[in-house]
Every structure is written in structure tokens, then in C-alpha cells.
Specification:
The complex is a heterodimer.
Chain A (H helix, E strand, L loop, with lengths): L2 H25 L5 H27 L6 H23 L1
Helix pairs in contact in A: 1-2
Chain B lengths: L2 H20 L2 H16 L10 E7 L9 E10 L4 E8 L6 E5 L2 E6 L4 E9 L3 E14 L4 E15 L26 E14 L11 H7 L3 E8 L3 E7 L8 H20 L3 E7 L3 E7 L2 H13 L24 E5 L7 H9 L3 E8 L9 H23 L3 E6 L4 H11 L1
Parallel strand pairs in B: 11-12, 11-14, 14-15, 15-16
Antiparallel strand pairs in B: 1-2, 2-6, 3-5, 3-7, 4-6, 7-8, 9-10, 12-13
Helix pairs in contact in B: 1-2, 4-5
The chains are: A mainly alpha, B alpha/beta.
Chain lengths: ~90, ~400
């Protein structure tokens, strides 16, 4: 993995990190130190995992065809939807 | 689903659409973290709510225009909550003077959150119901809204005006002594007159001096004031009042008169006649005084087609031939209904609160209109008086006791 791939992966991970970071700034006054730490820890783990996944996908982008990614996303969304319905039921 | 998660999901879908449109896989890759974060909420579980709330009012019976402190204590019997927002909603008519009805923070298991605020209160009866609790998992943006019951009631009775109750008269009296205009011969101490002796009269009532003078047995007769059954009617028809201040004065006067009548040993019932009819049955004593103050606090202006005149006054609720005191500015159409009440044998007295309109001196037309209204009111009062209904006019800017004192002198 070269620097360009890592930078591109970081760029693609940025939207979610910006969103989560803005939420932190908004909510930090309503949380105690332990809650803030937990939030930051979860953000770091999630950001790192996103970065690794994005970078991995880029590393294999030559082999990764568009329909495969589409199927991956569809599976993820369908799973989430089913899980949500089951939980509410 | 919370708004941030919806936004993240929408952004992810937008990126997927862009990826499909441009056939660029990097859009899909960028959509993945957003979609994953948005779907995280389906798999993260919020702690089971175990919140208990308690509300403490510094006073549940407060005077008008004073401040009342509301304290809320919320105990967490469940798991730790990373972010909790508690929001109390005080009745809209009350103004928050200091403090905040909102609390936010983290709450450990077994810990208490305590917060409070001060309210400036005005006359009324206010019910506090629930406390809104918003339990959040901050990172996954999962929210659960709960309502924590913590009822409380705040009674703000009208301001009391210093006065004694008017002396009312009625055909029917109670067997007990009390302050009223109903004097009955009996075991009182006020000398009333003499009469011939009848068998069964106690010997101590025989006037020996009169016997020596007239050579026949004569007994002294004493009399005493008797307690009455008094029905107090507060006119709460919105049409009868041109401004709220006049109604507040009427409520205040009704509460004060009820206090005075109860203190005089009478039994008092209370009826508020407006959009609805609120009835407090007759009673006496300290507990009944509290019940009457609550009824006066609850009184509110309102309109209802059935109650726009006194024709539907449920006068039969009051004991027959008892005294009835009506607090009302009076409307033109009230004459017949009040005459009917009098004809049924009730001793009717009307306290008529009056206030000068601030627009009365605006111009000649307003002055003329004011003059005509005053003449109409005078005619109504004269007609009521000719029907032997006592009317006590009361300018709300002056003291109530002065108006009642003048009425006593007039009598």
C-alpha cells in the first residue's frame, strides 16, 4: 500500500469522521469524562476500521468489479434492515 | 431512526447513485463507512430504562405572584446512561423566573440527577404530569424517549382581601348560631321582648319585675343570629367581563367572601358558572375552606351557548330558601333569571364588581357610549332592587370592605 492509496482511503473515510466529530462537539457538554472517553475510543476504532476497509478495497480495486461492490452494499443494507425489523418485532 | 443516521444513510445512497452514474468504484468505497455507521444503531443496544422521577414543590399552596421552586430528582435504577436529557414542561401559564427545566448529563447506575427551577405563579390550579427523558447512546446516535410520571398539583388561590362577609338573610336557617341577618328567638343573649308565660317555659326566663308590675306571669324572650346555608355563585361567563383584571377581582372577592362567611359559622357552597358549571357542595370548617380556595383557584373564564344567561343556573343544588350571593358584573339579560331565583324563595344578594374602562375618556363618542352603558346598568340595578334583590356595587379600585360597609349602612 503506497501513500497515495492511504491518502485516498483517508479522504473517503473523512465524511463519516467529520459527522461523528461534529456530533462529539455538539454533545460533549452533556457527557461526563467517562462517556467522552468512550465516544472518542469508539470513534477511533471505527475510523481505523473504515480506513483499513477503504484501503483494502482500493488495493484490490483492479480485481474488484462494480457489480460485486453493489452486491456487497445491497447485502449490508438488507442485513441491517432485517436486523432492525427483527429487533422492533 | 435519529436524524444524523438518516442523514448519513441519505449521503451514502447519494454516493452509491453517483457511483452508478459515473461507474467509479471510489464512490462505493466512500459510501461504505457512512452506511456502516448509519446501520450501527441496529446492532447496538440501549440500556433498559430504569429511571424513577420525583417532583418536589416548595409549596403546593402558594399565594399569587410569589415564586415556587420545583425540584426534580431522577434516580437511575438501570445501567449507566452515557447521555441523558431530562426536560420538564411547566404549565404554559407559568413563567420560569430562574433555573432551567432542562438537565443533561451522564448518569451512573444507582445515581441521582437533581435539578430545579423557580416559577412565578399566578392564580390557578396547575397540574404537573410527566418528565420527558431522552436516553442517548452518543456514538451510534440511538435515542429512546421515555416519559417519567411525577405528578404534582400546585394551587394558587386568589388574593384575599381583608373584609368581613356581608350579613345575608334567608328564610331558612341552620339550628346553630352564626353571623347573619337571620335572627331567631332562642337561647341567645340579645334581649328581644316579653310575652305571656306559657306552660313549659323555663322559670329562669320569667321576668319577676314585670310580674310585680302587671300582676301576671311574663317571660323575657331572647334572640340570636343563626347560621345560614349560603350559596356563593361566581359568574365566569367571558361575555360579562370586558377584561381579565375585572374577573380576577371578582374571583378574589368571591374567595374572600367565602372565607368571611365560613368564619361567621355559616355553611357555604360554591358554584362557578361559565363555560362549565363547577360545583362545590355546602360545607363548613377548615377543610371546606381549603376546598373553596381550590375551587376559586380553578375558576376560569369561558363561554358556552347553554350558559350565556343565568336561565340554566342549577339553583336547585342549593338548599331551599337559603341565602345566595352572586358575584357578577351582570348582563342586561340577567334580570328575569335573577327574579326567578328570588321568586323561588332564595335570599339573593348580588355583589357587582365594576371597573372604569381605560378607553372611556378617549373621545366624545366613547364618553357617550360609557354614559349609556352606565345608565343601562343603573336601570338593571334599580329593577333588581325593586324585586327585593340586594345589589352591592363594588368599584374594584376601592376596598371591598368599604363597599360592603356602605351596603350595611344603606340597609
Amino acid at each position: 500500500m503506497n501513500g497515495a492509496t492511504a491518502a485516498l482511503a483517508a479522504l473517503l473515510t473523512a465524511p463519516v469522521l467529520v459527522l461523528v466529530g461534529m456530533r462529539y462537539l455538539l454533545l460533549r457538554r452533556g457527557m461526563d469524562r467517562a462517556a467522552r472517553r468512550r465516544y472518542l475510543r469508539r470513534t477511533a476504532v471505527f475510523g481505523l476500521a473504515s480506513l483499513v476497509v477503504c484501503a483494502s478495497l482500493f488495493l484490490y480495486r483492479g480485481a474488484l468489479a462494480l457489480p460485486v461492490l453493489w452486491e456487497l452494499l445491497a447485502c449490508l443494507l438488507a442485513g441491517a434492515l432485517i436486523a432492525g425489523i427483527l429487533r422492533r418485532g | 431512526m435519529s436524524l444524523p443516521r438518516v442523514a448519513a444513510l441519505a449521503a451514502a445512497l447519494l454516493m452509491v447513485t453517483a457511483g452508478l452514474a459515473t461507474a467509479q468504484s471510489s464512490w462505493f468505497v466512500a459510501a461504505l463507512p457512512l452506511a456502516a455507521w448509519a446501520c450501527l444503531g441496529f446492532f447496538v443496544e440501549l440500556p433498559a430504562p430504569g429511571l424513577e422521577a420525583r417532583r418536589i414543590l416548595s409549596s403546593s399552596f402558594a399565594p399569587a405572584d410569589s415564586t415556587v421552586e420545583v425540584r426534580l430528582v431522577v434516580l437511575n435504577r438501570g445501567r449507566r446512561i452515557d447521555r441523558l436529557v431530562l426536560r420538564d414542561e411547566p404549565p404554559p401559564a407559568l413563567e420560569v423566573a430562574s433555573g432551567s427545566p432542562v438537565w443533561e448529563g451522564s448518569l451512573e447506575s444507582g445515581a441521582c440527577a437533581e435539578f430545579g427551577y423557580r416559577l412565578v405563579v399566578r392564580r390557578g390550579l396547575f397540574d404537573f404530569d410527566e418528565l420527558q427523558a431522552r436516553i442517548e447512546e452518543p456514538f451510534a446516535a440511538i435515542v429512546r424517549a421515555e416519559k417519567l410520571p411525577c405528578p404534582a398539583r400546585l394551587v394558587v388561590p386568589p388574593r384575599s382581601r381583608a373584609t368581613a362577609g356581608p350579613l345575608l338573610g334567608a328564610h331558612a336557617v341552620r339550628p346553630f348560631g352564626g353571623q347573619s341577618r337571620a335572627r331567631r328567638p332562642g337561647g341567645g343573649t340579645d334581649f328581644s321582648g316579653t310575652r305571656d308565660y306559657s306552660p313549659g317555659d323555663p322559670l329562669r326566663s320569667v321576668s319577676w319585675r314585670a310580674e310585680a308590675l302587671w300582676d301576671s306571669l311574663v317571660v323575657n324572650v331572647f334572640e340570636e343570629d343563626r347560621a345560614l346555608d349560603v350559596g356563593l355563585i361566581l359568574d365566569a361567563r367571558a361575555e360579562a367581563y370586558d377584561r381579565t383584571r375585572l374577573f380576577e377581582a371578582a374571583v378574589s372577592a368571591a374567595a374572600t367572601l367565602a372565607d368571611g362567611l365560613l368564619a361567621g359559622g355559616n355553611r357555604v357552597a360554591f358554584l362557578s358558572y361559565g363555560s362549565i358549571v363547577e360545583w362545590t357542595p355546602p360545607g363548613a370548617g377548615r377543610e371546606h375552606r381549603v376546598a373553596l380556595r381550590v375551587a376559586a383557584a380553578r375558576a376560569a373564564l369561558g363561554d358556552h351557548a347553554a350558559f350565556d344567561r343565568f336561565d340554566n343556573l342549577p339553583i336547585r343544588l342549593f338548599p331551599p330558601r337559603s341565602a345566595v350571593l352572586l358575584v357578577s358584573p351582570l348582563l342586561r339579560g340577567d334580570l328575569l333569571a335573577l327574579r326567578s331565583v328570588k321568586a323561588l324563595g332564595y335570599g339573593l344578594t348580588v355583589l357587582q364588581p365594576q371597573a372604569r374602562s381605560p378607553e372611556a375618556d378617549r373621545d366624545d363618542a366613547a364618553r357617550l357610549a360609557g354614559r349609556m352603558l352606565a345608565l343601562e346598568a343603573d336601570i338593571l340595578v334599580a329593577r333588581l332592587r325593586s324585586a327585593r334583590i340586594e345589589v352591592i356595587p363594588w368599584d374594584v379600585e376601592t376596598s371591598l370592605s368599604r363597599s360592603i360597609g356602605l351596603a350595611r349602612l344603606r340597609r
